[in-house]
Design a protein that fits this description.
Layout: E1 26-32, H1 37-47, E2 55-61, E3 66-72, H2 75-78, H3 81-86, E4 91-97, E5 112-116, E6 119-129, H4 132-141, H5 152-161, H6 167-177, E7 180-187, E8 192-196, E9 205-209, E10 212-216, H7 220-224, E11 228-232, E12 237-242, E13 245-250, E14 259-260, H8 262-267, E15 273-274, E16 277-278, H9 279-293, E17 300-303, H10 309-319, E18 322-323, E19 327-329, E20 353-355, H11 357-360, E21 364-369, H12 376-387, E22 392-397, H13 419-422, H14 425-432, E23 436-439, H15 442-446, E24 455-456, H16 458-461, H17 476-480
The structure holds iron/sulfur cluster.
Length: 494
């Protein structure tokens, strides 16, 4: 039986060819106090495109009305000059979506906007609320009607049902009910409100551009518009910006931080700062630590571009090996890819990656990748490298084995589909067809970030910091699992 599929049927095809990754959550951007707020939001979304490619939207307000434009596709496909011109006003919130909860369609595209007691209220959300289903069922049983299947709408309903007298009270009431991961931007006709969940799962940064206040999932969005990064929104902090100034409030008491460590491994751009740390630095450290834990005799180091480039550079530096470009990535493969006709040879992973034969032929190659989810793409890549003439292929992964799904806003397959949940290290090595396989240990990964105690690592160790099932037991999945826990990701030489 293939270890690539429980039950023996191999799920060879991921969402797009060469696509076997955790998927980014969403990107959000907000601006208050700029006459061209929607245009700034457009550029902000453009810089955050890597966090979501299914839909994009901007809601902008001019003190009298909150207007929204949303569409399916990439930011540049959704917005033209006329769309942006219609979004007049000095404040805007914006959203790139990769769906993690709810179906993929325009109804679920954000920002969501409703008319409630406080006037127009829009929301853009990055994350996943683990109690959204339970809250929704409760409200539906009392007559609430939902327009979308998105967990974000639950927050709007909670705010609309609040008895508080003003917007801030309504939002505080709503946010006190939710559990899970969430960085939020809310907009009314006059105010912009930012909120980050008390555990700080998802990033949210504050920036300044002249007198304007900005918010973004990653600081690379500030760089594009020459804005400056001020600081992160603190976990549990609610920031209200309107014509009277800025208020900083708290929702709930102080709680332990559980920032998503995968932001540093894969999601965030290396030119961003998230959770107060440079992504490039953390990622480079992961490659260096990987080289210390899993050295090997080889001729060159290559990366699986682009997300592994920085870790591969770190590996090569410590290993004293030459870093080469051995794979070329086609950046334009995506939703619009048309499969070849039946009878034509499947392009497979070659649609996305092509080997550089002159670099690989006759060489012993270390391939560095950031993570392995199902392993289907990697197996094909390894085959391709050997066909291109690589003498040996040594695979090094700059994160520990992913053996548990994420419930905090990342699109992951079920545990049964995760390669590391079903196979021993030697079985994985054989199945992937590599000469040696080395994963970064969890202890090693923790040395790559400042304040490692502030990070969630549940997809590696199965210890869920916030109960995903409402059972009162954060580790319920681990306890309920009939499968044995994966082998310890302790340092081990191949
Ligand atoms: S489970 Fe993994 S992907 Fe999900 S929030 Fe935790 S570290 Fe991030």
């Amino acid at each position: 039986m293939s270890i690539f599929a429980p039950g023996g049927s191999a799920p060879e095809q991921a969402a797009t060819p060469g696509d076997d990754r955790f998927h980014e959550e969403c990107g959000i951007f907000g601006v208050h106090g700029h006459p061209e707020a929607a245009k700034l939001a457009f550029y902000g979304l453009y810089a955050l495109q890597h966090r979501g490619q299914e839909s994009a939207g901007i809601a902008a307000a001019d003190g009298h009305a909150l207007r929204v434009h949303r569409g399916m596709g990439l930011v540049a496909e959704v917005f033209g000059p006329l769309d942006l011109a219609r979004l007049e006003g000095h404040l805007a919130i914006a959203h790139n979506r990769y769906s993690t909860y709810g179906q993929v369609n325009l109804v679920n595209a954000q920002p969501l906007v409703v008319n409630c007691r406080a006037g127009m209220l829009g929301v853009a959300h990055n994350g996943n609320l683990v109690n959204a289903g339970e809250l929704r069922r409760g409200m539906e049983s009392e007559g609430s009607i939902f327009q979308s299947t998105s967990d974000t709408e639950v927050v709007l309903h909670l705010a609309a049902r609040s008895r508080a007298r003003d917007l801030v009270g309504m939002l505080r009431d709503a946010l006190a009910h939710i559990r899970g991961a969430g960085s939020f931007l809310f907009a009314t006709e006059r105010a912009l409100v930012a909120y980050r969940d008390p555990h700080g799962f998802r990033p949210l940064a504050i920036g300044k551009l002249g007198g304007a206040t900005l918010f973004a999932s990653e600081t690379c969005a500030f760089d594009l518009i020459d804005a400056t990064f001020e600081r992160d929104v603190a976990p549990g902090e609610l920031i209200v910006v309107d014509e009277s100034g800025t208020q900083h409030l708290r929702v709930g008491g102080e709680q332990a931080r559980h920032q998503c460590i995968f932001e540093h491994i894969y999601f965030a751009r290396p030119d961003s700062k998230v959770f107060g740390e440079n992504v490039d630095r953390a990622r480079r450290r992961s490659g260096k630590q990987l080289a210390r834990e899993h050295p090997v005799e080889a001729d060159i180091v290559i990366s699986v571009p682009d997300s592994s480039n920085t870790a591969a550079l770190g590996y090569a530096q410590v290993a004293g090996l030459k870093y080469e470009i051995g794979l070329i990535r086609n950046h334009y493969v995506g939703r619009t890819f048309i499969d070849p006709e039946p009878g034509m040879r499947s392009f497979g992973v070659r649609v996305k990656f092509n080997p550089v034969v002159g670099v690989l032929r006759g060489r012993r190659v270390v391939v560095v990748d950031d993570s392995i989810v199902r392993g289907t793409t990697m197996r094909k890549l390894v085959r391709m490298l050997r066909l291109a003439g690589a003498l040996e292929v040594h695979l090094r992964i700059a994160s520990p084995p992913i053996a548990w799904p994420c419930f905090y806003g990342i699109d992951t397959p079920s545990r049964a589909e995760l390669l590391a949940a079903r196979a021993s290290r030697e079985e994985m090595r054989t199945a992937l067809g590599v000469d040696s396989l080395g994963y970064l240990s969890l202890e090693g990964l923790r040395t790559c970030v400042e304040d490692p105690q502030n990070y969630c690592t549940a997809c590696f160790d199965g210890h869920y910091p916030v109960d995903p099932f409402g059972t009162g037991e954060p580790d319920a999945l681990r306890r309920a699992s009939l499968e044995p826990a994966p082998e310890s990701p302790a340092p081990r030489s191949p």
